[in-house]
Amino acid sequence: MRDIGPPSLTDGRRGTDRPQVLGHVREFLTEAVLADA
């Protein structure tokens, strides 16, 4: 999951992708919670 990382790294490489990366993190966390439930 290379898309998950410190905001500074994301903004440095692709600042415009930050919202998309946050969305991926959200999906990842949601799937993890559903898997635990």
SSE layout and pairing:
Layout: H1 7-14, H2 18-36
If you had to describe this structure to a student in words, what would you say it looks like?
The chain is mostly helical and 37 residues long. 73% of the residues lie in helices and 0% in strands. The chain contains two helices and no strands. It has helices at 7-14, 18-36. The longest helix is centred in the C-terminal third of the chain and has 19 residues, at 18-36. It starts with 6 loop residues before the first helix and ends with a helix. 0% of the residues are buried.
Poorly predicted runs of 5 or more residues: none
Instruction: Bin the helical content.
Output: over 70%
Strands, count: 0
| Gyration radius, in Å | 11 Å
Give the termini separation.
Answer: 22 Å
Give me the number of helical elements: 2
Overall geometry:
rod-shaped
**DSSP strand (E) fraction?**
under 5%
Mean pLDDT across all residues, rounded? Answer: 69
Q: What does the largest sheet look like?
A: none
Would you list the SSEs in sequence order as H and E?
Answer: HH
Helices and strands: which structural class?
Answer: mainly alpha
